[in-house]
Amino acid sequence: MSLEITTLTHTSPFGPVMTTPFFRHIPPAERLLVLLPGRGYTVNHPILFHLLYLALENGWDALPVSYGFQTSGGDFRPEQFPLLQEDVALATAPALANSYRHLCVAGKSLGTPLAVDLARSAKADSVSLILLTPVGGVMQVLDGVRTLAVIGTNDPLYSPDVVRLTESDAHVDWRVYDGLNHSLIVEGDWRASLAALREIMDVCEWFLREHG
Amino acid sequence: MAQYPLYTFGGGGPVIHLAVANGFPPQTYRPLLAPFADAYRVVCLPPRALWPQIGPPPAQPGSWRELADDLLAGLRAHDLNGVIAVGHSFGGVASLLAVLDEPERFRALILLDPTILPPHVMDAIKAVRQQGGELRLPLVEGALKRRSRFADAEEAFAYWRGKPLFSDWSDSALWLYTDSMTRPAADGGLELAWSPAWEAYYYQSIYANTWDDLPRLDALLPVLVIGGETTDTFVAESRERAQALLPNARFVTIAGHGHLFPHSAPDETRRVIREWLTSVGA
Description:
A: 212 residues, two-stranded antiparallel sheet, globular, B: 282 residues, alpha/beta, 3-stranded antiparallel β-sheet, 12 helices
């Protein structure tokens, strides 16, 4: 694997100047994975951290985004969602300008509606989504975008009804894990948490290979 | 002794040693460090790029461990002990590694916007190296493309005055840079004293294991970490993780300045350092 690591800079609507590392293969890849973290589940938390390398190893370029409110040490209020959308648009625009044929956007929790937004506006030949612990409503607005959705049964956001209603959609692959909470771990059982992490990584790798 | 040239800012008493940033000669730190000569002996062991008659850098990238090895060998050669290590950018990493290798030689460590990139960047660099791949960093290409010849100092000053990198530097700071970064070329005019080839070599040799080393530092000696608010090097993500790994260290941010705050905000930086040195009895 040969990589060029550059830094994309933008001023976040939340205030701080953001630096986003952009990992590009040498020679250039035709596929890009954008990672959109959760409110507290950053790109350095296990699943997103490993997903970045998994993508690189599979020939995808990668862009792990952080939000301005995370960098400034502040918190996020729901009414600030438009600022978050703008933050993501500014962070990703220079990378997306490279006209990738395949785009996959991975979002965790708060990042899932942002991922759907980005996927719906993207201009790549093929677009797909990895939605980790999707938050309310996003599964109903996918508009036929190929999607891997992951959630645990101990996640307060888990709704068997949402899974049942959307799993018949040929574009959606659900993976529901027994006992995982919103951080996709089994509380108090690190062995089970690591085993789940491995399973989730395997299914993400399968998904990226199938749809890139 | 000539193998380890020593630049001195003057003074006497406890030793402050400066490890410079890549491409910034020790003279450029005079506004920040010379006033410490009222209570300290302030010195710098310049990296090999500035050694007389050094020639071109090695053909293959090395490691910033070489900087730490040279730093320790130089301190030994000049019999410098009880050192307060100050390191800027890659000099911060070199100082950190030197402290970990020989902690008994140091009494405190001050990191100025150290080149500790976020974990996922460091891990990607390690992965590329482990797989024997090519690692391309824009800083390397930028260094190699850097203008290296000028007719005279006025031309060099005017050229750098227009560069965004120096936009928040005072004229006097930029003149220190101009005078120390240029030297007479054999065929007339001026050339860069810190050659683009050495600058690129150092960037290509970036040390990527700092996150593994950092936790060992906390119990060894007092640590002060100063970052620039708008830095593109020691970014918030790195600062937060470093704070978690160094719970006993003091972290300070210089508002409104970037990676080069030791040059653009020398007075504020010195004030922070002096207050902290007093607080830890160093």
